[in-house]
Amino acid sequence: MTVMIDMGKDPKGQVVPMDLEELLATRLLVQGNSGSGKSHLLRRMLEKSARFVQQIVIDPEGDFVTLAERFPHVAVEAAAYNESEIRVLAQRIREHRVSVVLNLEGLDVDNQMKCAAWFLATLFDAPRDHWYPAIVVVDEAQIFAPAQAGEVSDEARRLSLAAMTNLMCRGRKRGLAGVIATQRLAKLAKNVAAEASNFLMGRTFLDIDMARAADLLGMDRRQAESIRDLERGHFLALGPALCRRPIAVKIGEVETKSRTGGFKLMPLPDSKNSNPEDLLFSEPEEPALPLASPEPPPPPSSSQLMELLQKEKEEEAKIAEAEAAENPVDNSQKEALIDALLSSIVEEEENAYRQANLLYPEFTIGCRMHGLSTPPLDLTAFTKRLTIAKAGLSNDDLQDELWQPALKAASILEDDIQAVFLFLAKTAKENAPCPDDEMIARIYGTRSAGRARRLIGYMENQGIIAIRTDFGGRRSITLPALGWTTSTAA
Fold first, then answer.
1. What is the distance between the alpha carbons of residues 423 and 148, in angstroms, rounded to a whole number?
2. Looking at residue 255, what DSSP letter applies?
3. For residue 229, which phi and psi values (nearest 5 degrees)?
4. Is residue 203 exposed (0-12), middle (13-18) or buried (19+ Cβ within 10 Å)?
5. Of the residues 316, 410, 445, 446, which has the fewest C-beta atoms closer than 10 A?
6. How far apart are CA 445 and CA 442, in angstroms?
7. Which ranges of 348-414 would DSSP assign to H, the alpha helix?
8. Closest alpha carbon to 435 in 456, 404, 461, 459
9. Residues pairing with 234 in the sheet
10. What is the 8-class DSSP label of residue 329?
11. Rounded Cα–Cα distance for residues 346 and 107 (Å)
12. What's the pLDDT tens digit per position in 165-200?
């Protein structure tokens, strides 16, 4: 499907279109000094293409959050999230194809770079099933891909530069079309800028920036002087998604506005009725004195604390007995509740990498919310059932005679590999495709696919499993103790 969006008009009054499908394949670089109209250009492109493609905006100044008022974008305040939450958000953005503006305005430059790096890296690392086409706009790209080290940490610069390089160099195969805007080409890393095939060059004054812009546009040094004469909102366009020869374009109007807007001259305040010196140097008004607070009571002694704790325990025990008497829960209901709680814990992405003792409080809270004042499993029993739940098994499977050999074989293995063994057994029993290293790593409780491969190698050396790999690199796994084999991975 070919979609052409109207970017503005050339000097003859003809519409200058942008081929959206070609843009997805060839990327775009926008350059211009502050005040040249870069943000206006990006806003025009985003508004005109919002109906056709998912849009993801990295917004360091909070200029584009107003898109959410007119279009189905979600404005995300990055300052309210941590690293893991930003990664989860990026995963869901790729999965559900939601257009988003990531507002980095509340962060310092170092944290802006780190946050953008984690966000872009997660977009880039999305599973193949989520490789949908999306335009990724990065405003003020020189912040995230600087040509030289600045006053930021080496870690932030390394992470951010790697993420930007992946976006521009390898993002196309994953459906990500990078659109980067910068005030100065000289401050932007060359390996990031060089991957763009489309250019919109606005007004700039420094010789080094004009020379680089002219070089990208295929103009000689004399023609480069015209870049200095461009008016606000006027750009020189070139590229397969725009035109085959450089042409001037005046960017069209937009429907939304920036939160900050432009500043214009306004009258100064009238100083006739007030003395400016008094406004600056007058003594501050005396703050009201706070009311005197009563003396705090003396702290209780250790014996009193022990008595209070004992009374609380006795009261909790009485309440639990009363609740149990009023709402008796039979064993079948209890086991169904345990399975449901364990399933909800295992389904949470981050819980795969947490220890059982850290998940146990979540389990006990869930029990109380469902009417069980006393948890039906202690920590040891919870750990065993969590291992079984990670493998995708339930209490019904524990009672199934067909599963008894697998449970018996798992019981003699080390605790940390029982979940992986049972998961492989379930996959083989269902004749499902052999799981990949990433899935095995998650069951094992690590984000490292390398550790998962070492674990599989160890299990093979111990005779716990046997691995077969065909000429196409497709793997299947056999469990000799059970005689079960997974199907070949797709």
1. 48
2. S
3. -95, 0
4. buried
5. 316
6. 5
7. 356-369, 379-390, 395-399, 404-411
8. 456
9. 250
10. -
11. 33
12. 999 998 999 999 999 999 888 888 888 888 888 988
**From CA 37, how far away is CA 439, in angstroms rounded?**
47
Please name which of 146, 170, 169 lies closest in space to residue 159, comparing C-alpha atoms: 146
Strand 243-251 versus strand 73-77 pairing type:
unpaired
> What is residue 485's DSSP assignment?
E
Tell me how far apart the alpha carbons of residues 140 and 167 are, in angstroms, rounded to a whole number. 15
Label residue 259 by pLDDT band (50, 70, 90): confident
d(CA 314, CA 133): 61
pTM to 2 decimals? 0.56
Measured from the Cβ of residue 320, the count of other Cβ atoms closer than 10 Å reads 14
- pLDDT tens across 269-308, in order? 776 667 777 777 777 665 555 555 556 666 666 667 667 7
Backbone angles phi, psi at 237, to 5 degrees: -110, 140
What is the residue-wise DSSP string for 374-389?
Answer: S-SS-HHHHHHHHHHH
Q: Is 462 exposed, middle or buried (0-12, 13-18, 19+ CB in 10 A)?
A: exposed
In the block, residue with structure tokens 């004009």: 210
Write phi, then psi, for 382 (nearest 5 degrees).
-60, -40
Burial class from Cβ neighbours inside 10 Å (0-12, 13-18, 19+) for residue 257 reads: middle
Radius of gyration in angstroms for the set of CA atoms belonging to the chain, rounded to a whole number: 31
Residue 73 in tokens: 């974008």
Q: How many helices (H) and strands (E) does the chain have?
A: 20, 14
- Structure confidence at residue 9 (pLDDT): 92
SS3 track for 194-249:
CCCCEEEECCCCCHHHHHHHHHHHCCCHHHHHHHHHCCCCEEEEEECCCEEEEEEE
Half-sphere exposure of 324 (CA within 13 A, CB side): 14
Report, in this order, helix, strand and coil percent for the chain, each rounded to 5: 50, 15, 35
SS3 18: strand
